[in-house]
Amino acid sequence: MRELKIFSGTANPGLARAIAASIGVDLGAVDISRFPDGEVFVKFAEHVRGDDVFIIQPTCNPPNETLMELLIMLDAARRASCRRITAVLPFFGYARQDRKDQPRVPITAKLVANLLVTAGAERILTMDLHAQQIQGFFDIPVDHLYAAPVLVSYLRAILRPDAVVVAPDSGSVKMAQAYADMLGAGFAVVAKRRLSAVDVASSHLVGDVEGRDCVLVDDLTTTAATLIQAAAKLREAGARSIYAAVSHCCLTAEGLEGLRRSAIQETVVTDSVPLRGMDVAGTLRVLSVAALLGEAIRRIHAGESVSSLFRLEAGSEG
Fold first, then answer.
1. Alpha carbons 159 and 265: distance in angstroms, whole number
2. Terminus of the chain with fewer CB atoms < 10 Å: N or C?
3. Count of H helices and E strands in the chain?
4. 183: buried, middle or exposed (CB in 10 Å: 19+, 13-18, 0-12)?
């Protein structure tokens, strides 16, 4: 069998090391630097010809830098004659723009998909895409994992039996319903109207939350405005306690401070995106998806099914 090699970009090396350790392999050696004018230079520091190569790089902040670095790594791997190249994106950036919802705007999710394939990716492993249809933007295999098994394992331990899973807006209804089914919990929805890229207004709540634990679920948060506004509605409706569960935590410093002042008791997130330089103590609970992604990599390399990783039993608290 061809050799398994795992390499990491500079976006989230801590997660990459944990993924490699979870399947008992060493992280591959790669030199990544910048020319004086800022251009990215990449050189694989070990033999990769004929190997099964996995390149781990979430395209998180700064998205232009991390995306370009990933593309250059893919190109370098392709030109080094790897047997197969899999791009592992724990967080797939530029996914918000997945359709033309107004005149003269791009579809950046499709653009990034094209760029990844052109650069040399032959397979994609990602987690909790902002929109499910993004899988169809690729003409190569896409393995789409969910953070739910990891998050639900923790939520089960802190929520009371009469808990309610709440969708903070209409776009997260399907995700919230899946969490409610896994937790055996009730379900509610907060209607939201977006005023701008950073401002939202929650208009009304559909569902009974009075005297019950509530958990808001979403795939991504940056300013946390949606979660904060929804939590305020839940507090007004008499919720006993309010939690939030978010797959990708791309919080700004202002968003973190907003969460601290909000009605949300604790926000549970994953380490798909690094929380650089932030004091998250008492506000965020960070769970690791390293074992989940590591097992997926092992199975892809061995030619095994990854569908069982979608089940709750596959997740564990990091």
1. 12
2. N
3. 8, 14
4. buried
For tokens 């705007």, the residue is 105
Per-residue buried b or exposed e for 231-270, using 16+ beta carbons within 10 Å of the residue's own CB: bbbbbebebebbbbbbbbbbbeeebbebbeebbbebbbbb
Q: Domains, the chain, ranges and CATH?
A: 4-145+290-309 (3.40.50.2020), 148-287 (3.40.50.2020)
**Active-site residues: which are they?**
192
| CA gap 213, 102 in Å, rounded | 38
- Within a 10 A sphere around the Cβ of 43, how many other Cβ atoms? 12
Q: What are phi and psi of 120, to 5 degrees?
A: 135, 0
Q: Which residues contact 135 (CB under 8 A, 6 or more apart)?
A: 129, 142, 144
Cβ burial of 171 (10 Å; 0-12, 13-18, 19+) is: middle
Tell me the pairing of strands 123-127 and 84-89: parallel
- The answer to whether residues 11 and 66 touch, using CB atoms and an 8 Å cutoff, is yes
Summarize pLDDT for 207-241 with one digit per residue, the tens.
999 999 999 999 999 999 999 999 999 999 999 99
Question: In this structure, are residues 179 and 217 in contact, taking their beta carbons and an 8 Å threshold?
Answer: yes
Distance between CA atoms of residues 139 and 123, nearest Å: 9
Q: Which two tokens stand for residue 296?
A: 């997926």
